[in-house]
Amino acid sequence: MNDNETTAHGESGALAPAGGDGALETRSTTELDRFENPGLPPHVHRAADDDPKAAKRAEKQVATLFGLSMLSTLVFLVGYFAIHDDWVFFFPGLGQAKTLNVVLGLSLGFALFFIGIGAVHWAKTLMSDEEVVEERHPLGSSEVERAKAVKVVTDGGESAQINRRPLLKYSLGGALGLFALPFVLQVAGSLGPGNVEELKETLWDPKYNDGKPIRLFRDPERTPIKLSDVTLGSVFHVMPETMEKVYEEGKHVLEQKAKAAVILIRLNPDDIKVQKAKDWGVDGTVAYSKICTHVGCAVGLYEQQTHHLLCPCHQSTFDLTEDCAVIFGPAKRALPQLKITVDDEGYLVAPQGFKEPVGPSFWERAR
Smallest Cα–Cα separation from 81: which of 195, 180, 186, 192? Predict the structure, then answer.
């Protein structure tokens, strides 16, 4: 800055030109213009505020909406038990979906929708709509202030007319009470299988192939794998040949695929430290369930230098050289190994299914 560009500070701290003539006007904060509080807009009365018949009509409308919610919840409960899991619903232009999923989704959605609409209609027509300003007060309220707070809550209840209109109270209670049942039912029905043996049975069981060993197929290419295709350090995501029948039938595809998912990796046989892992593999090529024993995520990250398999969900880590024992993370047991051999044509096959349950651990398991 040169001598001709010097400036001077005004008394309030604002910058002003040094000349004086035409200087910017300065103001202190106490001189700023203030706006008057415009106050609250005038209250507009609704029909239900002045006409008892209109209020009664609104009450019945709200109760009807809550009743429709109860009806939707009952449809959910009936559908949960009555609709067969194999029934399919076709959407023109969109494809097909399970009828059970469609009914459960729509009924639960309508149950929540009618509760919401009923509550909104109740607030719009019957609850007090006068704006109230509550001034802030110290956190340590006095007894008088606490009594006032209780009175505000009580007055709010009176304003909602829930005590004066028992029809609303009971219909809302019924809608909310029934709406909770689907969630209780879903939780109770998904806490885990009652029979652990069901988790051992997958499409790798020879009974699904007329008692013959089952070829390992690449996923998603769905082509068989020869031992010569598996080079040192390579990783294959594998499905059983019997999965083809499930694809053709189109039933329980995702469930069967999840239980049968396998990861195939070739190691140096000298690196494998557990004899059982060697015996159940072929020349260092081993196959393990791809489903994490923690909560069932897909284990698919392989680190060749350390021979570690990592679950991306919660970082459970399994050591392939130790028969996929857990070395880090929340998983509590090793990944089940699938025994593999080579058939006369050089293809990898599984002569038997898993000997351990696949997937997450449950309290029914001994280990």
Answer: 186
